[in-house]
Every structure is written in structure tokens, then in C-alpha cells.
């Protein structure tokens, strides 16, 4: 399996920028997702990276470095509704495509 | 509906009883995943289906847990002789198998089945 490592908790201020880091095992890598999960709800898809570089989607951007086994999610112009857990599951290579989640980062946005 | 549907949404059972949890994936999605999430924890992988076969059952916690998928569609997760440590939210997700290119093969999640074992 993949050893996905993220900070457990982060706090940031409304209107600011926050970067959530994620490291993973590089062997068997076939793409990395970012998901958002509000308390008591199902995870929802934010982004997907399989090649190196930055993917931008509105206020959210995701970066991947395959050689370093490293990704980050950048959230700009933070809003209170961005308070949630952020998960960076990894997809396996190979014939089937198991997707493994870590414990996620719980982000609290404060006024 | 257009999304992943799970039932029941809530299940309270007594220790030792069997429970069945159902997942109806998005039509046409060939891949189906079951995860378990305990309070405040991440998602724990249980089993993956591609079509009706399960190439990876490595996450099933014990032989009390089993799952099947029929017709490449609906899946049932069965827990026999439930224990209090089985209490969690059981999440199902489906996806098209990634075809490369710009398609992400993202997972679409249902709302989950919350299981409480007394």
C-alpha cells in the first residue's frame, strides 16, 4: 500500500492563502487526487494530477512532483465554507486501480 | 438517480447480528469501491470491484466481512456477527476505469451507510 502523509490539522484566516502538503510512496504511482470532505458528508472531487506541474481550478490549485513523491493543494481567498478535511488519495498503477486514502488534513478557517 | 446510492443511510443493530449494506453505483461505472470511515478518521480501503470480480479484497478486516457485485452494477457488503468495533460509516464509490489522457477516473461517492452496533 501507499504511505500517504499529511498534516493532521491546520488553521488559516479567512481571505488568506493556505497550502496543504501531501507525500506518498512513488512506487506503483498512477495519479493523485485531492478530495474535500465536510463533516458528516461524503468526499467530493477537487483535482487530479498525474503529470508534474500545477493544475489550477479557480481558487484551488494542485501541484505534483513525481520524483519527490510530493503534492500540495493551494487554497486562495479562503472562505469559512472551506473549513473541511482535505484528502490526497493515490491511485495504483497496474491492471486494477486501487485508490488509497490517508487520514486527511482538517482545515479550520477562522474569521 | 444520477449519483451513487447507498442504503440504508442509518443502521442500528445489536452485537452478533448480521447486516447488509447496499450500493447502487452510477450507471455504466465499471469500478466500485467500499471504504470504512470511523469517527474523525480517514477512509480505510475494504474492497475493490472491476465488473463483478474483486481483484483486491485485501482491506476486508476479517472473515466476517464479505462483498459481492452482480450484473456489474449493485454491490452488497455483508458483515456477519457484528461487533462494536464495526461501528463506522461505510462509503461506496464508483468510477469509470481510467482511460488515460485527460480523463481522471475520479471516484464518485455515495452518502454512506452509518452503522452503529450496540
Provide a descriptive summary of the structure in words:
The complex is a heterodimer of chains A (111) and B (118). Chain A is mainly β and 111 residues long. Chain A is built from no helices and eleven strands. With 118 residues, chain B is mainly β. Chain B is 0% helix and 47% strand. Chain B is built from no helices and eleven strands. In chain B, the strands form two sheets. In chain B, strands 2, 4, 5, 6, 9, 10 and 11 form a seven-stranded mixed sheet that branches. In chain B, a hairpin with a 2-residue loop joins β5 and β6. Chain B starts with a strand and ends with a strand. The model of chain B has no long low-confidence stretch (mean pLDDT 91). Chain A binds chain B through residues 1, 30-31, 33, 41-45, 48, 87, 89, 91, 95-104, and chain B through 31, 33, 35, 41-45, 48, 50, 55-56, 91, 97-98, 104-112.
Helical amount of chain A: under 10%
Helix and strand string of chain A, N-terminal first? Answer: EEEEEEEEEEE
Radius of gyration of chain B: 14 Å
Summed up, the helix count of chain A is 0
Brief account:
Chain A has 111 residues and is mostly beta strands. Chain A has strands at 9-13, 18-23, 29-37, 44-49, 53-57, 60-65, 70-75, 84-87, 90-92, 99-100, 105-110. Chain A binds chain B through residues 1, 30-31, 33, 41-45, 48, 87, 89, 91, 95-104, and chain B through 31, 33, 35, 41-45, 48, 50, 55-56, 91, 97-98, 104-112.
Secondary structure elements and pairings:
The complex is a heterodimer of chains A (111) and B (118).
Chain A lengths: L8 E5 L4 E6 L5 E9 L6 E6 L3 E5 L2 E6 L4 E6 L8 E4 L2 E3 L6 E2 L4 E6 L1
Parallel strand pairs in A: 1-11
Antiparallel strand pairs in A: 2-7, 3-4, 3-8, 3-9, 5-6, 6-7, 8-11, 9-10
Chain B lengths: L4 E3 L2 E4 L5 E6 L6 E7 L6 E7 L2 E4 L8 E5 L5 E5 L8 E8 L12 E2 L3 E5 L1
Parallel strand pairs in B: 2-11
Antiparallel strand pairs in B: 1-3, 3-8, 4-5, 4-9, 5-6, 7-8, 9-10, 9-11
Amino acid at each position: 500500500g501507499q504511505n500517504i502523509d499529511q498534516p493532521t490539522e491546520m488553521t488559516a484566516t479567512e481571505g488568506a492563502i493556505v497550502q496543504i502538503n501531501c507525500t506518498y510512496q512513488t512506487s506503483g504511482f498512477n495519479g493523485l487526487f485531492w478530495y474535500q470532505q465536510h463533516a458528516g458528508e461524503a468526499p467530493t472531487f477537487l483535482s487530479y494530477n498525474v503529470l508534474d506541474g500545477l493544475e489550477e481550478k479557480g481558487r484551488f490549485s494542485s501541484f505534483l512532483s513525481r520524483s519527490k513523491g510530493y503534492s500540495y493543494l493551494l487554497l486562495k481567498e479562503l472562505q469559512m465554507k472551506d473549513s473541511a478535511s482535505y484528502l490526497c488519495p493515490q491511485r495504483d498503477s497496474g491492471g486494477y486501480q486501487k485508490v488509497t486514502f490517508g487520514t486527511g488534513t482538517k482545515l479550520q478557517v477562522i474569521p | 438517480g444520477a449519483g451513487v446510492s447507498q442504503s440504508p443511510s442509518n443502521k442500528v443493530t445489536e452485537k452478533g447480528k448480521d447486516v447488509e449494506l447496499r450500493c447502487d453505483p452510477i450507471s455504466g461505472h465499471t469500478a466500485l469501491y467500499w471504504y470504512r470511515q470511523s469517527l474523525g478518521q480517514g477512509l480505510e480501503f475494504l474492497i475493490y470491484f472491476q465488473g463483478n470480480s474483486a481483484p483486491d479484497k485485501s482491506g476486508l478486516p476479517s472473515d466476517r466481512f464479505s462483498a459481492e457485485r452482480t450484473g456489474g452494477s449493485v454491490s452488497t457488503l455483508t458483515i456477519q456477527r457484528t461487533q462494536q468495533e464495526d461501528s463506522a460509516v461505510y462509503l461506496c464509490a464508483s468510477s469509470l476505469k481510467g482511460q488515460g489522457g485527460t480523463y481522471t477516473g475520479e471516484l464518485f461517492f455515495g452518502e454512506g451507510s452509518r452503522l452503529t452496533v450496540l
